Amino acid sequence: MSTAQRERDELRRSIEEFSAGGYTVDRVGFSVCACGNETFAVVLDDEVAVAATICAVCEEEAALADSDDHFDDVEEVQQAECSCGNSEFRVASGFALDPDGEVRWVSVGLRCTADGVAGVYVDWKIDYRPTSHLLAQA
Ligand SMILES: [Zn+2]
Ligand SMILES: [Zn+2]
What does the pLDDT look like over 46-102, one tens digit per residue? Predict the structure, then answer.
């Protein structure tokens, strides 16, 4: 198994084990920049519940799930930082689905590129439908 695959699996597992909102995570989508790179700086806000990636290579920004709709509400965005001080991550979004296949919870997991520690940094409830546009990214 390649290193990239192993790192993805570790990140997927940490998101599944966290089970944000108490729900089983049904789908996990990994962030991959259009340039092909998979490591990012991450900005987020816990209260408004948003997260976005900034590619470590080309600096392209991408909002995760429905974050683009809510970034305007954020007073001061925070940069995600691992406890080791590093702020570059592999990134994935977990989606918990209801019985109809609609998204009911989103969780954003990060795996530190320096020490490999993975965890969910922000998660939020989705209380509208349809939600298929969220899954299109996964
Ligand atoms: Zn890029
Ligand atoms: Zn770290």
Answer: 999 999 999 999 999 999 999 999 999 999 999 999 999 999 999 999 999 999 999
Please report, for the chain, how many H helices and E strands are present, in that order.
2, 8
CB 111 within 8 A of CB 89: yes
pTM of the model: 0.95
Q: Rounded to the nearest whole angstrom, what is the distance from the C-alpha of residue 87 to the centroid of ligand 2?
A: 8
Structure tokens at 9: 């699996």
Ligand 1 centroid distance, CA of 108 (Å) = 19
Ligand in closest contact with the CA of 118: 2
Distance from the CA of 117 to the center of ligand 2, in angstroms? 6
Ligand nearest to the backbone CA of 115: 2
Backbone angles phi, psi at 75, to 5 degrees: -75, -55
**Domain segments of the chain as ranges:** 3-135
Ligand nearest to the CA of 60: 1
